[in-house]
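forwarding from the other thread:

> can someone predict this with coenzyme A?

sure thing
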Amino acid sequence: MKRLPYSIAPLRYSSASDASGGWGRGPTPAGEPNGAGAAPAAGVTVRKATVRDVPTMARIINHWASQGIMLAKSHHQLYQYIRDFVVATHGDVVIGCGALHVVWEDLAEVRSMAVADGWHGKGVGWRMLQCLLDEARELGLPRVFALTYRQSFFARAGFQVVPHESLPHKIWGDCLNCPKYPNCDEIAMTLDLSAITAEDDRAERQ
Ligand SMILES: CC(C)(COP(=O)(O)OP(=O)(O)OC[C@H]1O[C@@H](n2cnc3c(N)ncnc32)[C@H](O)[C@@H]1OP(=O)(O)O)[C@@H](O)C(=O)NCCC(=O)NCCS
């Protein structure tokens, strides 16, 4: 089975005084590969989102949505799905967000991944994605998917392109609100987490 370019530590919740500042594995030590080939920006932490983060999350997401590269989110939608979200912070400032939305017993979507202008290419998106994948594993989900224009970003994490039709009908409910529906040109990608689990377990036993 495929070995992915990162190791997954158990997802944990820790207090703000912890080095990780919340959910996740904490800052990657300088020089440690983070899958992006570079250490992430210093002082960036990833934690679960709170309702106080929503106005900034909306600003970041809707900035990119106005450019047609992701789906817009209202404050109402963000409050409704706040438990799905992690945010990346630098100091007290929210600089990115991303969500894991459970669809069914065997499938979840990684969605609304957005990093503020000026913070791209520093490993912030990668860190959030790893936390969301950790959470998916903790929940026992065997597979996650994403609909995206950023194929290379997800491919680096082991996602593979699949035909839209291979995803179950129930995932398209949210797409009814998308201006592009039914002509979705986003790339459908999936990641088999059970393959990673089996591979990691085998590696640990050796
Ligand atoms: C997609 C997105 C969330 C990725 O976040 P990010 O923080 O820029 O992601 P990373 O820094 O982890 O990786 C981005 C790229 O920078 C490169 N990179 C990562 N760390 C780097 C560093 N320290 N120095 C230079 N380049 C770096 C990576 O190779 C990566 O390239 P790739 O995506 O083509 O593989 C962000 O670009 C974004 O908000 N885009 C607009 C909205 C969007 O398209 N969202 C996706 C919807 S599913």
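Helices lie at 54-65, 75-80, 124-138, 151-156, 193-205. thats all i got for now
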